[in-house]
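Reference record
================
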Amino acid sequence: MTAPLELPRSPALIAGAGSLARLGPRLAQRHGRGARLLLVADPGVAALAERVEAALAEAGLEASRFEGLSSDPTAAQVDAAAAAARELAAAAVVGLGGGSALDVAKLAACVAPEARPAADYALAARPFPAGSLPAVLIPTTAGTGSEATRTAIVTLDDGSKVWTWGEEMMAELALLDPELTVGLPAHLTAATGIDALVHAIEAVTNRNRHPLSAAPGLQAIALVARHLPRALEAPADLEARGGVQLAAWLAGQAIDISGTGVAHALGHALGALGHVHHGRAVGLALGVALADNAAAAAEAHAAVARALDLTREEQWTAGHLAGAYDALVDRVGLERRLAHERLTPESLLAATLRPENRPMLAANCRAYSEAELGGFCRRLLAA
């Protein structure tokens, strides 16, 4: 019997090729012509930011761009974005880019009403202030699902990567336009697509799994398997790009209900210590744990196997699923070798066991001892 569940509202969604053209009229109707907006943009998508600014200007809206963020955004960068929103008297915050830009945008929108540091809200240490600004999120990658969740991740001064979450962090509007992802390099297309896949697999198999997370999660798995290889083979294929975008959105909804598991605990440790891209980190981490997870929660992982279309001609097994997953990771070209001076099995295990990662370990479908987690760390770094 599943536990009682209260679903939050979901963002309004505009999806499909050419969706950007609908952004300006939608926001002008909501906030009025002449409204001022803060555009939090990944500095690597300047050309796309110009397109967004032009679309907003055409609708009579004023956008001020903030680009002071990194791939592992810090709490101080969120503070700077929030200060920019206050100075501008912004009616809303628009996030454009990958998960880092979207996380900065929606967290800045939440903390902007007060000048209190964003770090004060880490791990839900205090409630967000009243009067949060609405956030509009436009992903230029297809993986993190940040546009669909109530969570954001920031790095604190001590280097730890921590969660912030709350109902206030749910975006008002998400816009998925596959045209905005066409220029994404192949290695990032692969890493972000695998990120969406890991989100979905962990959400539908962990201890908190629920029919309402299984529905979007299993569909996300099927979409990634169908469209990610094609998006890499033919980068301009908008159907494939759009399919992976929808997968990321659905996987985001799934983790917003059920959370993640051991792959994210290991992946966050890899990111904090070695600045490994999040999608690559969790993708490799799930690979070392998947067979054991599948043996412990066979029914849930059988559904994953069906979503991957692995049970059509042969009997499903835990090893078969793990092998098929590894084959997909290799097919999309995810680099396996992890090399960083701070990455040792001992340091990785210690980071995995930090307090901010323990809820993910606890949610995993199988409990792992410290010795077993140490074995995963050694396997990850031995590739």
About this structure: The chain has a mean pLDDT of 94. The chain has 14 helices and eight strands. The chain has two domains: 12-181, 186-382.
